[in-house]
Each structure stands twice: as C-alpha cells, then as structure tokens.
TrEMBL record:
Gene3D superfamilies: Hypothetical protein, domain 2. One of its GO terms (biological process) is base-excision repair. This is DNA-3-methyladenine glycosylase I. Zn(2+) binds at residues 14, 27, 181, 185.
C-alpha cells in the first residue's frame, strides 16, 4: 500500500487527496459520506459521466460551473432542455463541451424522472445496491465490483447512458454506499460513524 498523505493537521489520509489542492476539502467533507439527496445523487452520476476519459480534478474545479449550467442538477428542469440548451452548453467555456456527454445528461434526467416514479426516489433505488461490507475488496484496490456491475446493468436496462461499471463504482465510493477510505486515513472512522447513523431510504 502506498504511504498515506499527511494533511496540514498532521493526520494521515488517503494518498490521492494530496494530488491536487482541490482534493483535500472534497476528501475530508464529501467523499464517502452517505448521501440520500436525489439532486446530489444525480449531480454526481452526471459529473462522473463528464469525467469519463478525463481526471476528476478537471471536473471538480469546474463543478460550480456545471451546477450553474445544469440548473443545479434539478433533473426535472434538465429533462426539459432542448436543442437550444445543447448549443448553449456547447458554447459554455466553464464546462466540458462534449456533445455526447451533454446530451447524455439531459437524456438521463428524463430517465431519473422515470426512476423516481418507479422506485419512489433515486436514493431508494441506488441504496438498494449497497454492497455487503464483508464482500468488499480492500479499500481502493478495485475499480469495479459485483454491486457496481449490477447497478450499471440496472441503469442501462432503464435507458441510462454513460453509466458503465467503473463509473458506477466511483459513484458508489463517493456517495457513501461503501467506505473506501484506507485504514490509516483519519476520515475513514468519520465516514464509518456517519454510515452507522444513516438509514438507507426504503
């Protein structure tokens, strides 16, 4: 295992959070903490789609621009985007201007609305794929899992785009469906405590 990153407080953390200035706060405050807010879940899955082939830093530094461009990732609003909105987004230098990914997020917004009708909420659907902790590989040693493969297949069956198993796994890591902080990381225990106090939506 790579040596942990030592933060400004002298505490050990996951090595990756020392890779860029933007990563530390994201690692300490967001990554791995359980989320049941539908808009945040849709946002993360959308940003993971934009990240495909790029670095997470590229997306993270543009996240506020993405939020502005996509109406705060309110999927009811995004689902109503049309051709003019696609052209507007393609002309927005603050985001990743990739037609396929832009159109996929708009398309997925419509699929998100349908999924809420089916499952009651995005959160209820996504958390139904929470893996059993005993079945997980060591932290940060895998890029897919049986659970992420199953989630990817379920989303694709419902027409979602840019939701492969690797994207699904990164989404699950970030949204707290598993605790993938390494053992020496000071945030691992905080995430574990948050998960114990969290009731997955039914």
């Amino acid at each position: 295992m790579a040596e942990p990153f030592i933060g400004p407080d002298g505490e050990a953390r996951c090595r990756w959070c020392g890779g860029a200035p933007e990563f530390l706060d994201y690692h300490d405050r967001e990554w791995g903490f359980p989320v049941d807010d539908d808009r945040r879940l849709f946002e993360k899955l959308s940003l993971e789609a934009f990240q495909s082939g790029l670095s997470w830093r590229t997306i993270l530094v543009k996240r506020e621009n993405f939020r502005r461009a996509f109406e705060g990732f309110d999927f009811d609003r995004v689902a109503a985007f049309g051709a003019d909105d696609v052209e507007r987004l393609l002309g927005d230098p603050g985001i990743v201007r990739h037609r396929g990914k832009i159109e996929a997020v708009i398309h997925n917004a419509g699929r998100a609305r349908a999924l809420v009708e089916e499952a009651g909420s995005l959160a209820a659907f996504f958390w139904s794929f929470e893996p059993d902790a005993a079945s997980l590989p060591p932290p940060q040693s895998a890029s897919t899992s049986p659970a992420s493969i199953a989630l990817s297949k379920a989303l694709k069956k419902r027409g979602w785009k840019f939701v492969g198993p690797t994207t699904a796994y990164a989404f699950m890591q970030a949204m707290g469906l598993l605790n993938d902080h390494v053992a020496p990381c000071v945030i691992r225990a905080r995430v574990e405590s948050a998960r114990r106090g969290f009731t997955p939506p039914a």
